[in-house]
Amino acid sequence: MSKILIIEDEAAIRRVLTKILTEENDSYKVEEAEDGLQGLEKVKNEDYDLILCDIKMPKMDGVEVLEAVKKIKPEIPVVMISGHGDLDTAVNTMRLGAYDYISKPPDLNRLLNTVRNALDKKQLVVENKILRKKVSKNYEMIGQSEAISHIKAMIEKVAPTEARVLVTGSNGTGKELVAHQLHQQSNRAAQPIIEVNCAAIPSELIESELFGHVKGAFTSAVKDRAGKFEAAHGGTIFLDEIGDMSLPAQAKVLRVLQENLIQRVGADKDIKVDVRVIAATNKDLKKEIEEGRFREDLYHRLAVILIKVPALNDRREDIPELIRYFSIKISEEQGIAVKHFSVNAISLLQEYDWTGNIRELRNVVERLIILGGNEISEQDVKLFASK
Q1: Phi-psi region of 81 (alpha: psi -120 to 50; beta: other; left: phi over 0)
Q2: pLDDT in the model for residue 317
Q3: Dihedrals φ, ψ of 262, to 5°?
Q4: What is the pLDDT of residue 324?
């Protein structure tokens, strides 16, 4: 059922609008407010799928109501109702975020089409939010330790900006989770995040992978191909293990950061790109710079914000929560009932030396779920999680 609020100071118009809407669709639940203040109070206390709001009203006019609604519940579409003399104001409300405006007296077909379209848009917004929540759960950062809380706070501050971020930490600590959280909490979240594992791509192919190529640029280039930077246009590119990138490729990445321009391999034409760059490495880049394997100017371009992800051994207090999280997730994947870990089993796992970090912990939890009893005991840990 769609819930619609009509904010209108003329009782006769409220009655007409309510009658039109309820007769058109019995799934519309319509509520009324006789002025802007009353309407805004209703919006604060209840959830609506659509608001129809008059422009000229006592106490608080429609423009003020619109601005307030967009601050407290921006996902609700607001359709403005305008008298003949309000048309200029109605057009201006579109710039402030109104979905549409309807002139008085309302044309029946125009009103119903606008309401249907606005409600469809609201439904899409809700579905997108649910979908993004599901996706973001795959990149959830688990833990309440001081180290993880500090990283979460940093992400919250940095994500809405355009600042480049360099994420450091050992293998398996979850650097990619930080990158995805930065993207998901950014203004670019609706656009793609493109991941590039620089260590997994041969040095002779990295430039083609990043910047694309034109037909005939090299033996196997049988057609033009866009690279990862073009694919990430408008969104984020995550350069994982950037410490393994070749020096020639580093020089080209530096140019992108300086000029927002790329050039496909074999081409002489520049292509403008708009990407946010997040990089990650398990190497000590300052040491790599000293030994001539990494460009210092690129390092300073990338490391506007530095986020160091701690090793699991440095956040052992998070292990119980991580075990519970992985137990639920793995049990769902395996299609079996969730297995619980005894207190002694968890305590023993907290004492282990987790050189492979979270990745290793997940593997061990999966092994215990498959091989252990209905409840994972200390004995199961000793038998199947020996290191």
Answers
A1: beta
A2: 96
A3: -125, 165
A4: 95
| pTM of this structure | 0.65
Whether 140 is in a domain gets the answer no
CA 372, CA 341: separation in Å to the nearest integer? Answer: 10
Cα gap 158→236, rounded to integer Å: 14
Q: What is the DSSP letter of 311?
A: P
Domain count of the chain?
A: 3
Q: Where are the alpha helices (DSSP H) in 279-356?
A: 285-290, 296-302, 319-334, 343-351
**Mean pLDDT score of the chain:** 90
Closest CA to 247 of 294, 213, 288, 282: 294
| Domain harbouring 297, CATH code | 3.40.50.300
What the block records as the tokens of 79 is 């359709």
**CA 263, 264, 269, 274 torsion-angle sign:** negative
Report residues of the chain scoring pLDDT below 50: none
3-class DSSP state of 144 = coil
- Report yes or no: 248 and 207 within 8 Å, Cβ to Cβ: yes
- Tell me whether residue 272 is in a domain: yes
Contacts of 33 (CB under 8 A, 6+ apart): 5, 6, 7, 8, 39, 41, 42
Q: How many CB atoms lie within 10 A of CB 350?
A: 14
In a domain, 80, yes or no: yes
Phi/psi at 342 (5° precision): -70, 160
pLDDT in tens, 126-143: 665 555 555 555 678 899
Its domain, for residue 173, covers 146-310
Which residues are within 8 A (CB) of 134 and not within 5 positions of it... i.e. 6 or more apart? none
CA 137 centroid distance within chain: 10
CB atoms within 10 A of CB 256: 19
